[in-house]
Amino acid sequence: MELLSGADMIARFLQDEGVERIYGYPGGAALHIYDALFRQDKVKHILVRHEQAATHAADGYARASGKPGTVLVTSGPGATNAVTGIATAYMDSIPMVVLCGQVASHLIGEDAFQETDIVGVTRPIVKHSFAIKHPSEIPEVLKKAYYLASTGRPGPVVVDIPKDMTAPTERYEYVYPKKVKIRSYNPVTRGHSGQIKKAVDMMLKARRPVFYTGGGIVTSGASENLTALVRRLGFPITTTLMGIGAYPQTDAQSLSWLGMHGSYEANMAMHHADLIIAIGARFDDRVTNNTSKFCPTAKIVHVDIDPSSISKTVRADVPIVGPADSVINEMISLLQGREMANAEALPEWWATIDGWRAEREGKLYEPSQPGERLKPQEVVEAVYHITRGEAFVTTDVGQHQMFAAQYYKFDKPNRWITSGGLGTMGFGFPAAMGIKQNFPDDIVVCFTGEGSFQMMMQELSTCKQFGTGVKIINLNNGSLGMVRQWQDLNYKSRHAHSYMESLPDFHKLIEAYGFTALKVERHDQLDAALERMFADNDELVFLDVDVDPREHVYPMQVPLGAMRDMLLSKTERT
Amino acid sequence: MRHIISILLENEPGALSRVVGLFSQRNFNIETLNVAPTEDPTLSRLTVTTVGDDRVIEQITKHLNKLIDVVKLVDLTEGNHIERELMLVKVKALGASRDEVKRTVDIFRAQIVDVTPSVYTVQITGDAGKLDAFVQAMAPIGILEVARTGVSGISRGDKVLSL
């Protein structure tokens, strides 16, 4: 029997749980825990420069690895600074455990120094939360936290730890709980066979089917099975922004992603489909546009691990509650030896889709002329080519995010890392940092804009401390591009506070941290700059590219319209 | 339509606030809410009445079920059920109206549980409609104070809500 203090239990538990890196920032209420971390060397602590960055870094790691990220912050401002990152993880169903210091039990409720009711503050943005009531319960509560965070529909779990729970003088028995049981929590392990059979029958009878898959495929590691199923049937597939990479985008059956800025052919195919097979996607408003006009001729099969996602915004004809991987597996076995009922229909459907593809071929954007400012799309395409499509790509939020999603093609899951649900500016750089520290041999690119980057640029200091070689590409249009785009379209180009006056000299800023900064103003400078940027994978390089501020993201769905109602350029609409 | 949802909830700090928070967070409404421990001290039973169409009620039950603290729940209005609410009412009981109050109490099969020279305190149980009717009947005489527990309910017959 081993007696440990609460603080040592936390450090030991993290080791036993196999946590290699945690992201955090110390402070009064967390100091016992920090002391315990100091006295061991298995769990590495990455000291960030702002707690929000700790959550985004842990989140980036979780998205890239599929394992829960871990964050450690102190009470009060430490915990409230983490809130945006917790909400980001919650909206995208990312597994994360956030350990928060708290003032000592006897002070709780007395408005003590650095006291915040963080369980209360985070209640609507966590999967669950715990408050430690006695040091002896620490191992079990932590095990429950990791179990909840990473199973079922994953999400962030907050553990509130009053300082007296970690006092070095009080020791209790420590045993690593290999398993925990929570009586009210039993995530489904397989879908309803009858429903799956019904769905398969509908697939075989379909004339104009489309797969519409989301982040759930990435989360449940169902990418391989999904690819097998889609190839077996020969159906077109589109993914959500969160599901990019779950099916190879360079494959002929991929229509790329759908929704507000999704591809023309994906949105058209959805609108005209007679069967939509939605797996691990939640019919989010950025996908459906106006739900009352959504896919008028389609029957809908909806597979999701979370029953509350089914028929939330769009009613499913065949709801299937279950993990994507196992449901897809069962579909594949049910398909064995069976044929499409209307074999002639599928080639016709593909001919229609190829027609849509051809309509937009070569018209996606106007390339820049020599001597002009670059188009942001051109930069993304160039980065795609130089990294051979194999980088981890993180983004912030705005036009650059959409351009990155449109022009970088992903053939693998877990490589496209973006804040889809919450749309958190400032996410990209710390997320890239978290990924690079855990995948040092890979190329990690962060597409950002001068607006987003300034929200989390203090993490340059963290990268300096830990030698983190992320590649930051600043698509600098001198304005908050997406806001400006909306103002162009809806507010007669009255650019209320969407321009960034007084931008810093990014070159000097980056150099102040001892890193390399590159500047590209014209087309002919781009290739050389990218060569230089990716020459050494361990080196942080910041590339500041002047891009055309007048550029808009297209296609863009028309507000309140159907899937097919899109602006295709500044002068064309469907 | 009005629904009565009964929930077995972990008897833990913070559990109730998660349930109540869910309703405000998701823009669902709560008409009445009542909660107390059960015979099993680890469980509370919470009964909430809410109004919504089938789609809303489906979302409410699904989201409630997702809360880790919710162990089990039933929508009592889906089957035959008994619903009761208890109300304590202080009414003016002076002069002629003193007898009038007593008569009305008898008609409603309520009880007078506290008496002063000028006030009767009445206890009445029943469904929400009966309680509303009693309040209406008393209003002209002069209601001083009302305390209602909110609806509590249970299924009829063999059906039980338990672990």
Automatic annotation (TrEMBL), chain B:
Cellular component, GO annotation: cytosol
The pathway is: Amino-acid biosynthesis; L-isoleucine biosynthesis; L-isoleucine from 2-oxobutanoate: step 1/4; Amino-acid biosynthesis; L-valine biosynthesis; L-valine from pyruvate: step 1/4
Q: Where is the ACT domain?
A: 4-78
Note the CDD domains from the entry: ACT_AHAS
Catalytic activity reported: 2 pyruvate + H(+) = (2S)-2-acetolactate + CO2
- UniProt KW Mitochondrion keyword: no
**Domain of life the protein comes from:** Bacteria
What Pfam families does this protein's entry cite?
ACT_AHAS_ss, ALS_ss_C
Task: Kindly list the GO molecular function terms attached to this UniProt entry.
Answer: acetolactate synthase activity; acetolactate synthase regulator activity
EC identifiers of the protein: 2.2.1.6
Any keyword Transferase?
A: yes
Going by the UniProt record, its keywords in alphabetical order are:
Amino-acid biosynthesis, Branched-chain amino acid biosynthesis, Transferase
The record ties this protein, via SUPFAM superfamilies, to: ACT-like
Question: In its UniProt record, which GO terms are filed under biological process?
Answer: isoleucine biosynthetic process; L-valine biosynthetic process
Function (record text): Catalyzes the conversion of 2 pyruvate molecules into acetolactate in the first common step of the biosynthetic pathway of the branched-amino acids such as leucine, isoleucine, and valine.
PANTHER family reported in the protein's UniProt record = ACETOLACTATE SYNTHASE SMALL SUBUNIT, ACETOLACTATE SYNTHASE SMALL SUBUNIT 1, CHLOROPLASTIC
Subunit-level organization: Dimer of large and small chains.
Family assignment? Belongs to the acetolactate synthase small subunit family.
Name under which the protein is recorded: Acetolactate synthase small subunit
